Amino acid sequence: MVDWDSLQAAARDVAARAYAPYSGYRVGAAALADDGRLLVGCNVENAGYGVTLCAECGLVSSLHATGGGRLTHFVCVNGEGEVIMPCGRCRQLLWEAGGAALQVLTPKGVLGMEEVLPQAFGPQDLEAVAEAGGA
C-alpha cells in the first residue's frame, strides 16, 4: 500500500525550493520508482519563459540519473500544497516513465495514467511505423 500522505509531503517540501521568480507559481512533484526510490522535482523558471522546466521534468531526469526503472506512483502539488494535474507535456513524460500502470494522485483521487492521458502516444506507436517499413 502506498503512503500517499508521505508522497504528497515530499512534493510539498520540494515545491518550497522551486525557482519561480517570474510567475510565483511553485510546483513540486514526488514519485516512487519500481525499486522503491523516492524521486522529487520542482519547477525551475527562466526569463525566456519557453525554456522553463516543469517539476515533472526534473523528476523524470532524476529517475534516469539515479538508475532508471519505471515510475509507479506520482503526485504534484502547487506552492500551497494542493494536488494539481500535470500539464499536457508532462503527462507525456509521465507516460514514457511509467506507462499505463502509473498511479497518479489527482484532485479527483487516484487515477491510472490511461485515464490521465487517454489514447497516449508512446514507443509502441514508433515501433509500429518501423515494423511497417516507415522508419
Automatic annotation (TrEMBL):
Gene Ontology MF annotations: cytidine deaminase activity; zinc ion binding
GO cellular component terms attached to this protein's record: cytosol
InterPro entries from the UniProt entry: CMP_dCMP_dom, Cyt/Deoxycyt_deaminase, Cytidine_deaminase-like
UniProt-listed Gene3D superfamilies: Cytidine Deaminase, domain 2
Top-rank taxon, per record: Bacteria
Assigned keywords, A-Z: Hydrolase
UniProt keyword annotation of Hydrolase present: yes
GO biological process: nucleobase-containing small molecule metabolic process; pyrimidine-containing compound metabolic process
Pfam assignment, any one: dCMP_cyt_deam_1
E.C. code: 3.5.4.5
Domain CMP/dCMP-type deaminase: 2-124
Family classification: Belongs to the cytidine and deoxycytidylate deaminase family.
Protein name: Cytidine deaminase
